[in-house]
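Module 6 notes. Inverse folding takes a fixed backbone as the condition and produces residue identities as the prediction. Think of it as a translation problem where the source language is geometry and the target language is the twenty amino acids. Below is one complete input and output pair. Work through it position by position during the lab.
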């Protein structure tokens, strides 16, 4: 009984540690996006001279400070990660210093114009160092996560063993209730199988390797909270394959599954690293796009996705004629809550279907 209690306590502890690492990994990604947004604002100002872009720079600067503050608190007992974080803080300070100097040179252009190029080169160099450091911390956090997952599996196994032993004790003490005790043991074994399956399928789709519906909900919740606090926009794209049912009916589910795998790889090739692609289920995919400034970027992305299917998709040597219908919802224009955005994107996707398929539609505001 004590063994089982200890195993369950440790299981909760390592689960909490894994969740903490996941939050840290998310914040590492958010930190890179915040710096990139600030850099985009600086570049926009340098190219156009419009002071509106300076607001984007300041938003990025503020968001960077907030994320660094969170990471400071979260990594207090992780010396390996803190070393890299301290290095990043130095580089971030240097990066913003270079950006501020570049803007000052722009304001006093003329004799100082050679310094503008030097500052730009210095800025790119520092940004590369920041990205390298972010990647290094990301790798360390991934290793920590894998270690916690391994410990969780051990504790789950220990919990099952403890439960089985507890069942044996109950059987020995309560011989007259043998049948009830046997059912309890079977339930424990069934829970073990369910737990293993749930652990394996918790985050990713087994067929395509993409994040699954659960991951979509988690990512959208995090993206929504970030957008809510930073007043940034993001978009949700619902994508449904046109003609997929005909492929299944004509060639069977084996070819259909192979086609889904091929389509997932095709999608990934035209997306940015910061875009979040997931398989919602069946032939439906969800794409979450953050870190964009204008709606035109979304239309260009949708057109690239549709263009993928101008030629038949070769699957197991079979040319398959399919397309994709896309529905787009933007935060906060089409909704101020995640469920509302998903509903708008889904309805817009069906509008694309009704209007001839293989096209994109924006939701109604």
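Target side of the pair, the amino acids:
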């Amino acid at each position: 009984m004590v063994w089982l209690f200890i195993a369950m306590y440790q299981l909760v502890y390592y689960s909490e540690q894994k969740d903490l690492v996941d939050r840290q990994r998310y914040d590492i990604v958010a930190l890179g996006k915040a710096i990139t947004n600030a850099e985009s604002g600086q570049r926009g100002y340098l190219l156009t001279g419009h002071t509106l872009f300076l607001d984007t720079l300041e938003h990025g600067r503020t968001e960077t400070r907030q994320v660094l503050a969170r990471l400071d608190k979260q990594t207090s007992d992780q010396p390996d990660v803190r070393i890299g974080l301290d290095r990043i803080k130095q580089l971030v300070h240097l990066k913003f210093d270079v950006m501020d100097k570049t803007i000052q040179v722009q304001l006093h252009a003329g004799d100082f114009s050679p310094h503008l190029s030097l500052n730009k080169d210095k800025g790119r160099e520092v940004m590369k160092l920041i990205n390298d450091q972010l990647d290094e911390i990301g790798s360390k956090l991934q290793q920590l996560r894998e270690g916690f997952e391994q410990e969780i599996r051990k504790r789950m196994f220990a919990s099952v063993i403890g439960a089985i032993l507890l069942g044996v004790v109950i059987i020995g003490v309560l011989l007259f209730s043998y049948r009830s005790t046997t059912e309890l043991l079977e339930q424990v074994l069934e829970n073990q199988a369910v737990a293993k399956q749930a652990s394996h399928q918790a985050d990713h789709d087994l067929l395509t390797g993409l994040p699954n519906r659960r991951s979509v909900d988690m990512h959208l919740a995090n993206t929504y909270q970030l957008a809510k606090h930073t007043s940034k926009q993001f978009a949700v794209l619902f994508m449904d394959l046109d003609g997929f049912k005909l492929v299944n009916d004509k060639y069977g589910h084996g070819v259909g599954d192979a086609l889904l795998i091929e389509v997932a790889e095709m999608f990934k090739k035209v997306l940015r690293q910061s875009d979040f692609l997931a398989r919602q289920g069946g032939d439906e995919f969800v794409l979450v796009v953050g870190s964009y400034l204008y709606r035109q970027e979304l239309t260009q992305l949708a057109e690239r996705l549709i263009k993928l299917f101008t030629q038949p998709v070769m699957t197991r040597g079979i040319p398959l004629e399919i397309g994709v219908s896309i529905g787009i919802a933007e935060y906060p224009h089409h909704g101020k809550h995640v469920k509302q955005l998903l509903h708008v994107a889904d309805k817009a996707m069906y509008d694309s279907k009704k209007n001839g398929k293989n096209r994109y539609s924006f939701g109604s505001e």
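Reference fact for the lab report: The two ends are 58 Å apart (CA to CA).
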